[in-house]
Design brief:
There is one protein chain. It is built from six helices and no strands. It starts with a helix and ends in a 10-residue tail after the last helix.
């Protein structure tokens, strides 16, 4: 609702207010911005490229669908991802207490 209000009114909020409203996940001081973004990008880069792509696709497609259809799409996508190399590698790496080596397939 906050995002919709901002879009419709053109109002602005400070970074702290946006974070409290749940519209920002991180706020960095100017001097810490590049390092904070770099650390976040590195964390994301450690994840399964296939999984990340599917998540991005699901978010985009879910915005255009009703809740029932979006949930069905999520279930189908998750079932397909469970058969992927990346999912199996993630499970194996967790069990073996090592970093996964994702291949994006």
């Amino acid at each position: 609702m906050v995002a919709k209000r901002l879009l419709l009114t053109g109002d602005t909020m400070s970074a702290a207010e946006l974070q409290r409203a749940g519209l920002l996940s991180d706020v960095f001081a100017d001097s810490e911005f590049e390092e904070g973004v770099r650390k976040l990008a590195l964390r994301i880069a450690e994840k399964s490229p296939l999984g990340l792509g599917l998540i991005k696709q699901l978010v985009a497609e879910s915005l255009e669908r009703g809740i029932d259809e979006a949930l069905r799409l999520e279930l189908r996508t998750n079932a397909a991802y469970c058969l992927s190399y990346d999912m199996q590698e993630g499970i194996s790496a967790f069990a073996e207490r090592r970093k996964p080596q994702f291949l994006g397939r």
